[in-house]
Input
Amino acid sequence: MAEEKKGRAVATKTAASIPKFVRGNLAATLKAKEEGKKVAYAYIADGQDEIMRAMDIVPAWGESFAGVCAAKRDAEKYLQKAESDNFSRSLCTYATCTIGFDMVREELGGGAVPDAPWGGMGRPDMILGSAQLLCDPRFKWPQATQHYLRDVPVFVGSMYYPPFDPKMDHHEQEKFYVKYATEELRECVKFCEKHTGKKMDWDRLAQIVELSDRTWDLFIDTYELRKAFPTPMDTGDAMNTMVPLTFNLGTQEAYDFYKQLYDELQQKIANGEGVADPEKYRLIWAAGLPSWFALGDFQYFNSKGAVFPVEVTYRGCEKIERLELPKTNDPLEHIAWRWVRYWTHWYDKARKRPGSLPKVERIIEYIEEYKCDGVVFHSAFSCRSWHAGIIHQAETLKKVYREIPILILEGDIVDISSYNEADTHNRIDAFIEAVDSYKKRMN
Amino acid sequence: MAELRDEKGLAKAERYYTDYGVRARELKAEGKKIIGYISALCPVEVLTAAGVVPFRLKGNVNEAITKGDAYMETIVCPFVRSVFDSAIKGKFNFIDGMVLPHQCDSLDRTSDVWRDYLNLPYFHFLNAPHVTDDPSIEFMKELLKLFIKTLEEYTGKKITDEDLKQAIAKHNENRRLMRGLYELRKVNPPLISGVEMIKVLIAAMGLPVDESNKLITEVIDEVKARAIPSNGLKKRIMIIGDQIDSVDIMDAIEGAGAYLVMDDISVGSKMYWQDIDTDKEPLQAIAERYLRKLKIPTNFVDTGGTYEDNLNARFGHMRRYIEEFKVDGAILFIYKYCDPYGFEVPAIKSYIESAGVPVLYLEDEYSTSTIARMKTRIEAFLEMMA
Output
């Protein structure tokens, strides 16, 4: 029996509507069959969101479902199921949790799975993966899933960006990276057309891409309101409010959600309402996916007067004008430029500060703009893509910026076996003391 | 010194294995540029064409990671951590530069760490794609051009198509010779043991291609001269995995009473089984070889057909090895924290078992501290097969 913990209280009303959003996404995958729609297993930050939306393909997000299982502390049964077929516990637990669920669903005939958190996901008609710099599971997970869903076709595209090299100008490289990414998106369209039996409506795609641009802009405008003192929203909420951007990009619902959040944050600022009372320390969540089963730890920070007005994690967009995207009439090329520039637009800045890195430059920018007093990273043992390199980021930050207090928490995204609440809270206590001393020193 | 220079074949391989890098040090002293690389994904032909010595970096299963953990998380592939630990301790202080191909997250996500802390005169991250379709080949060619440009800038030497063709010819010869040595494992019992073979494989990857070709030729001559033994009674085993670069697990398998007759590992058959086409434009041929022919789990394969078709395309070579080398059982030896291989385990295991060959799956941590445990499981596996 899963040990379900009471959910984390949220500071904004808008964030409180997220569970309904997530349930809606999961339910859509189960209802799709009745509505004659196709379901695709999909993975975030692959650049394929708008293609799916334009073709009425319902995305089933394994990362979201596994996060729900973790938050409800009900993932162990699926992790063990995957382990029973020799998937190592050290592999990405988003993947192994979802594969375990797939194995259970297949044993039950492929329909709804009783006792699945929030009803589970519908059986996919296709799997849309992506090979890239973001993570290996984005293309190994689809292959591994196909071992249990043998009739389900798999597409894997590519969405690369030039790696940062302080001695090399990346601008010329961007062109052939974008050309490649565009061609891979075109391959994705062809695959979707083949397996839906429908042709892409390019005008509709262009409208959806334009809506995504506006959503990116509105997201940043909204999140930048958090620079206010006291901050009206912190990372604890942002781990919820990332849902529409991450899983519903290209939909009006996502845009409307951020409009509502924007209005609420403005109101809170006008009322002087913060997250912690009083707000004593401002921190940045500098990297790492959260432990979905321990989101309450953000409240533990809050109880110490510490808030997170900004985070790198799930801030998966930027103001479009800051990316200086070349003009194109091809919506796929626009998507490609948007993603490539999303990653590379910190490069020039990093090159100007000897020894720096784009990721570190981003952290410095946020520290300065959001007036942060300390830096928190989370290292999840099952995920190399987001969490390998954190030590280097932390060391570089200290070297090229300043001796700001840094805490590296350790745990996992889904697997609760790695988590010790008392130990985590002890480490947070010690860190807060360090931040307090630092603030006094700086003042 | 005269004695060492007269050394040949297996004795030379033994020395190069035991004192890995000894020849590269000598070449460095002679003024050669030594460029380290990791993984079978590195197009060594380009390095040879540039006039530098490609030197494959290896880890050390016998040495605890003592310095590397200060720079690199323990969730990173233990092989990668071990190589970095060796590098940061100065074990490869003779290399002038390094190429890090984008094989997996553990290499990609730590590329800044390698570059910034080793601080070598030359460093290049080769951002090879995982997808292998036509646009990916074109993309890979652009990456190869960039790679060539960085090498030209570093060495001051222009790399021509003719240079590339000559390097391809030499490395194809290297692969042909090594396959010839593998042939000698087909007889029963094999003429060369698994322990001897891994030593030759490791020795060969630390040498310039001409010297590697000479070494393999000497070993073939020496092994061929051995008396053909009577029929062996032991089980014939194939090992499957990634960066297995020490004798320890090979010794455990053979010490448990089996013949190790074949491998599908990164320093072994993966390096040597597929040539580069010589009737194509060099960059096209190199791109195709490293994306489409090289059998590594990070080169994505999907035929567009049935799942069985995909399995045959991904793992069919393993079944061919089983037939050609008369394999009785396979050992799948995978490191913890390896997503590319870890996600393949159920598929590989069932694919090989469906051919009637039992599979033992072992998850390891790239450390000899686990060897006793591994050997017990191997013994049980062999007993089960008896």
Notes: Chain B touches chain A through 55 residues (CB under 8 Å). The longest strand of chain B covers residues 235-241. The mean pLDDT of chain B is 96.
